[in-house]
Amino acid sequence: MIKLLRWWSLVMVVGLAACVTINIYFPAAAAEKAADRIIEDVWEQDATTPAAPPPPAEQESAAPPPPSAWSRLLDFLLTPAAAAEPNLDISSPAIERLTASMERRHHQLRPYFQSGAIGLTHDGLVAIREAQGIPLKDRTRVNQLIAAENNDRNALYREIARANGHPEWEAQLRGTFARRWIQKAPPGWWYQNAQGQWVQKR
């Protein structure tokens, strides 16, 4: 009976390690760094750097309890998985070409971001928020710019996933970029929240 319990305990620990490995397989931190680099290149002076979170309050200098045998075993099993988290390659010619195209276009889109006529969507794209804010004579051109921008953004998310050998990461990369576009947008720009409602950034 004791041997059976030990065997089931080992199975549970290995299963937990496998679950954690799956959860960290997509390199979320590396994806945020890659997104920030590309956004800063595309937006240049428009990209803002969010303020660093305040340092955690100092804890009382009580000695931590010694790790249990289970925690030492979990550390042994999970550390290699965490250490294996890859970096993202964003240096392929296709990615550089898409980034350069978006950077050139941004100079034409910037006035409409600033006026609130267009904004950032919750799925990492750009959309018209208030058509009345665009002069009638310019609407066709702005629609063409937005279509080209969204084509490049869709291709960028797909290409980063492909260039890193994981096309299944495309949706996660899109979500990461969607958050970072909004977080790095200047105050006054408009974006969609998770419910699709337009909100002005403060």
UniProtKB/TrEMBL annotation:
Region of interest: Disordered: 46-67
InterPro entries tied to this protein: YdbL (IPR008309)
Bias (Pro residues): 51-67
Top-level division of the source organism's lineage: Bacteria
Annotated Pfam families: DUF1318
Positions of transmembrane segments: 7-26
Keyword set, alphabetical order: Membrane, Transmembrane, Transmembrane helix
Protein name listed in UniProt: DUF1318 domain-containing protein
